Here is the input.
Amino acid sequence: MGAAVDAATRRLEGADVPMPRREAQRLMAWLLGTDRGGLVARNPDSVAAKCAINLERFLSRRENREPFQYLTGEQEFCGRTFLVDRRVLVPRPETEDLVGLVLGLPLEAGARVVDVGTGSGCIAVTLAAEHPEWKVIALDLSSDALALARENAARHGVESRIDFLRRDLAELPGEWSSSMEAVVSNPPYVSEEEWKDLAPEVREHEPKAALVPGPTGLEAYRTLAPEGFRVLRDGGFLVLELGYRSEAGAREAVLAAGLGRVEVRPDHRGISRILIARREDTRRVR
Here is the structure.
């Protein structure tokens, strides 16, 4: 076992995979259905033939810088395990902060909450599971992403409590005007220039459309802010995840759309990560 981990470490190191030994241990532990502690205990053991075959297959994919989560097909998010693959972004810890904030909003039972750009469904599913009295709607332009989001909703027993809709963030339904208590989104916010410098795991494997909205990285905010204003009820919340260079542009977009009481909260690294705004001026002429 130890020799196999050593060999895997050398291969991952040659492929410039960050922290290659940790990655080799993590991959071997996953294949064996154990954790790193269990792997240490089995260090003297030999690697079974089937395990060796699987190790070679998955190691080759990781050498190609495919995200570990795509190898396993799973990612934990807010205490639940979600299916993930190339159809969607891998859920990030920063988005857990966004979900935690939304879960704490002072919304009444029966509140309508829409998750724009749902991807894997991690936001919508978590909201529906934690607040079964809310009416959650999950939107995405990608039919492939919506199919996976439905799988995740079924996996966690909330499929019947989420409405899934294939729709672009620029085209929220006209009948939604002034009807939503909250609009939540982790929109694409990476600029074309930033995208070129992303790690290969992201740039070469995750769906670009879910990362890059346009040249500046601010296009989604500029489109979603006025749509959010239109569909929110008086006092409703718009909650957006921010990229590390997005705060000024996103703030400008929501203020221009007529939303007020804008607040930005940092993540655990001190980066401005979540923007919260409210619709208050219903007299604004559109």
In short: Residues 49-63 form the longest helix (15 residues). The radius of gyration is 21 Å. The longest strand covers residues 232-241.
